[in-house]
Amino acid sequence: MRVVMIKLLLLFVVVLIVPQLALAASDENILDLTRHWAGYTALAIFIVAYVVIILEEQIHMMKSKPVMIAAGLIWILIAVVYIFNGNTHTAEAAFRHSLLEFAELFLFLLVAMTYINTMDERGIFSAIRSWLVSSGFSLRKIYWITGLMAFFMSPIADNLTTALLLATVVITVGKDNIKFSIIACISVVVAANAGGVFSPFGDITTLMVWQKGTVEFQQFLVLFVPSFVNWIVPAVIMNFAIPNAQPKATNENITLRHGAFAVVGLFIATISMAVLGHSYLHMPPVLGMMTGLGFLKVFGFYLTRRDKKLLGDREFHRAPDANELGANNLQLVTTETRKEFDIYVSMKRVEWDTLMFFYGIILCVGGLGLIGYLAVVSQLMYGDLGATNANILVGLLSAIIDNIPVMFAVLSMNPDMNLGQWLLVTLTAGVGGSLLSFGSAAGVAVMGQARGTYTFFAHLKWSWAIMLGYIASIWVHFLINADTFKIPV
Question: Is the full-model pTM beyond 0.90?
Fold first, then answer.
């Protein structure tokens, strides 16, 4: 925690001692508040809220509470200052812009989490756990299987959804081995973030770079090897801490409820709609996600009607067909209970604290950006440090602040960089968040999914290994993608 506190204090001191670096606003209606009492107060509020988040384990306060309050106070300060300057519209417009960014993320996550909870209710994750155990895999093999799955799934399903899905599997498999669960969750988060870098659909920051037009779709693929190195280095190191034991055997009968595979198919179709809709129709991915949620709700209506028709006041049981027996003799039994399917139960089980945490963070950073602090930091980095050092620092900042606003600041600055440097900042912003548990959306979501197991301090113990992977991935990028540093953008 000392390292995080020192970085936060350094960021605060930098803003205080270099006011001359504050950028002049391009819009005459936007005020530069970096040297104003309201700006200092807003920054202090954000830091205090962040410290409370770090102390979540000690004080047992959900992480969303302090940042939601901080967001409100910061925007109240901004609104008051603008009103006193006779401007009643700029702050409102800026707030609505930040709120729109949150709304898109909120709805995207809501759909993804609802699908995951529905698949869980249909028995998908229990079946995967049973398959892993019945196949005779040790905890160490399961550790590698889930890590590899996370790396190769995230470019398609995005790093957040992938991390949520596989973290659920890890927690289910390792429910009797906390050490395994912690390390495997870390591996899943690092792998999901790394895998999301070489695809525009794997991470929000990568998507932002692609939308900006600085990097073409196929050019992201050259980041595959550096991304893989970013995960494999800490994965090999943490491998030695995984107990080479068998998961505890279970005698429970695994139940795949009716429609389980249909829900999986709908989820894949939903992700495809989000990807294709964005690629070919140039619409936000949330459109495809919400459309997919509509299909899931219609399917849920069918399940509910089916339950009412088949169950009534009795229990319905059907033995499995021969075709329902898996290759590894995984027994699939469809047993309907008296409880009817309800899609809103899956939506109620969504990790609302995580979603509200995103609200607070996005609004806090949006407010600090309007004040001018993001521009101050960006100008300081690219003005004095140079592109390479600045882009490496972007990854470190993304672990502390959040990679989305940091990348947005870089894209807004639009520094004169070649393709290699743009790929470098895409890499660092995407994988840098793995250094801390709440440095990425995947990490934050898994903290909510594995509450009490995967925590800030549990992740922090292995940050040194993740840092080695971060350094190695940058070195590999310079080594194998040297030609891209000669291509102007």
Answer: no
